[in-house]
Amino acid sequence: MKITAVDVEDVRFPTSLTADGSDAMNKDGDYSAAYVVLRTDGTDADGAPLAGYGLTFTTGRGNDIVGIAARQQAALLVGRDVEEMVADMGGVYRDLTADAQMRWLGPEKGVVHLSLSAVMNAAWDLAGRVAGKPVWRLLADMTPEQLVDVADLRYLSDALTRDEAIALLRAQEGGKAERIAELERTGYPCYTTSAGWLGYSDEKLRRLCQEAVDEGYQHIKLKVGADLEEDVRRCGIARDVIGPDRALMIDANQVWDVDQAIEWTNALARFDLLWIEEPTSPDDVLGHAAIRRGVAPVGVATGEHGHNRVMFKQFMQAGAMDYCQLDAGRLASLNEIVAVLLLAAKFGVKVCPHGGGVGLCEMVQHISMLDFVAVSGSREGRVTEYVDHLHEHFTDPCVVREAAYVLPSRPGYSTQMHEASVAEFRFPDGAYWAGRLASA
Amino acid sequence: MKITAVDVEDVRFPTSLTADGSDAMNKDGDYSAAYVVLRTDGTDADGAPLAGYGLTFTTGRGNDIVGIAARQQAALLVGRDVEEMVADMGGVYRDLTADAQMRWLGPEKGVVHLSLSAVMNAAWDLAGRVAGKPVWRLLADMTPEQLVDVADLRYLSDALTRDEAIALLRAQEGGKAERIAELERTGYPCYTTSAGWLGYSDEKLRRLCQEAVDEGYQHIKLKVGADLEEDVRRCGIARDVIGPDRALMIDANQVWDVDQAIEWTNALARFDLLWIEEPTSPDDVLGHAAIRRGVAPVGVATGEHGHNRVMFKQFMQAGAMDYCQLDAGRLASLNEIVAVLLLAAKFGVKVCPHGGGVGLCEMVQHISMLDFVAVSGSREGRVTEYVDHLHEHFTDPCVVREAAYVLPSRPGYSTQMHEASVAEFRFPDGAYWAGRLASA
């Protein structure tokens, strides 16, 4: 079986019309996916054509640029033998990252890393389908040596050696079956950000917080950072609705300088905050470390813009994060994510992946399950983001029940979109956009 | 006078044919420029059409991707009044960086930051031409307040406040005229990397080192990192030719992990090295700090892949660099570079910008001159990179005399290419590439 072709689609959903997803830094995004399909000449167990489906998330314009980069990178996979590829995913990843000319455009960051993520996410989805397993299970079933071979440990050896990584995984082997059974019973806890976007009215905020409580959520997150007085009012509303026992988190989406982040967070600390998320530039390791010292006992959460494993290594070495919010479309797929999970396990940092956007929830459920089953062995104090929109476009959408992700069971990475969704929202020629552009 | 149009060209020079530019990480690059021309409806003093010319440097494939991003960003400038724009370059920069959707693709890193650099470099070239001044002089003639308004100080206030920046500049105001006169007499010292590429034979290395000595260079830099025995032999040859009094630097182009960097550098330290350049991942602030402690008295130089001012802030806060090798096409133009010069002046780090590539030497001469005249006020211990190739494609190429850059005197940023060069090397339809692709 060979990879015969690559399709890359620019899919954009018009979320800017409803202010879903608005925050202090991002005001008018159309949630979008650079969507990669690796076609093969094989078929699945049902005789349907076998393909791998992957994506990265962007907020609209520029999604085309990521797609062009993905097309150039994915071209290296066409003609490859699928069985050989899925048996050596670490090697495939290294081949794609070894391209010196694309590397110059990062290295390992920005557009070429987002696009690499989309391509490798599709390769992982294909690997899961070939194995007949959900991706979390494909990885959890690996031996410690196999899983470490998948992980990109380059530049990490001063913090985590290969031997240490294997030892960490070996220590969790015994309890795997029990933890899988536990996930089958109770899923993986999540929290909702759907209540707290900046563009919503107080009334809508109150209503959405109450709905979240009614649905069983133990954590609520609000966007902050545009206006302190408004933030005080909105945090007050949220705390009032959720009561004293549930957790309240705030998210500033990078709007502050370091000292301002400390002052603003401390001004809201009376609402008993679990964490402040993205208080400043996502590149500022030392700044986050200073903020963490300055706002304790409020925790520091960051990572959705953490552009590669070297940044996460430093955040952990510097004591700059309590909660690691890695992003499944910004890190270059599970090859890099497994490395970050291993670092987090070593440093005792809680992994609470970034959800939302398009398809991120579909992917992060696999990551959190894998972390619990095979890497950290713990759900204690961890909670994975969930945002309730755009799931209807996926063929195997994530399912949340009683404020927990249900363990994915279908083969792959849950990242296949309905063909009808792609046809409608492909930019600029899908039915939705063609109609809107014609009437503009 | 208005900006009427933007042209973006994908210009690639076939440097991979001669192994110019080969190093341990980058083996087959074609030195390229994403080249931006901002057209206006005005004319210069000679009655010729007035335009601004800017670029960023890449190593080949992917240059098209940067060009597409530049086209989207530069579109925001079309229709703008030129006089208003050049009077508020800080505002123009903020407008272009405020685009939330392009920001998501970085933020402030990778393709969208490289492309922003090309666009703003063209805007700065235009500003210099409008003022009838070389860009270094345009900036050096500003008041401290004006220059600080140009600088992007966002996320830096924990290390450098606006007031501190103004005070730093004010302290250098008195000596400006004298330092300009000094630059007119002796230029700005540079070193050559042309001798030490990995692809060259020992014989060629020896000959090129001798030529550099004969031309008056006091510093020679070699690429290292592929093979320790070979590095020992090549450093031995270089030290033998240049004698004990000239400086020898080595450049590993990011190939090592942290501990390996310390061991390898110390294994070469007997050749009396001034600096080790890019020993590991350019993102690894804490790793560089560890390396700096581990290889002293060999200095640590890095920055050509330093993707924004927040990274440089941390390198300086952490004591991770002795020499700041900022890149004129990777930082988002002089708006961000002035901020880094200010940080370096505060922390006492020596700015030795990254030269080479396409057009980088043309730009960095302006930066080093500006740093000496208006910011740090010193050339002590500083030396700017010079690589002797591809200058023939520029209408106002940098001039090096007695191992020093000659002070640029013509208006603009020295980044205009000959139209014939663009016509020949435009990819894929320029005469050179069309011919090569036809005969392939």
From TrEMBL, chains A, B:
Gene3D superfamilies: Enolase-like C-terminal domain, Enolase-like, N-terminal domain. Its EC number is 4.2.1.68. Coiled coil: none annotated. Residues 202-298 form the Mandelate racemase/muconate lactonizing enzyme C-terminal domain. SMART domains: MR_MLE (SM00922). Keywords: Lyase, Magnesium, Metal-binding. It catalyses: L-fuconate = 2-dehydro-3-deoxy-L-fuconate + H2O. It holds the Pfam family MR_MLE_N. SUPFAM superfamilies: Enolase C-terminal domain-like, Enolase N-terminal domain-like. Its cofactor is Mg(2+). This is L-fuconate dehydratase. The lineage of its organism: Bacteria, Bacillati, Actinomycetota, Actinomycetes, Micrococcales.
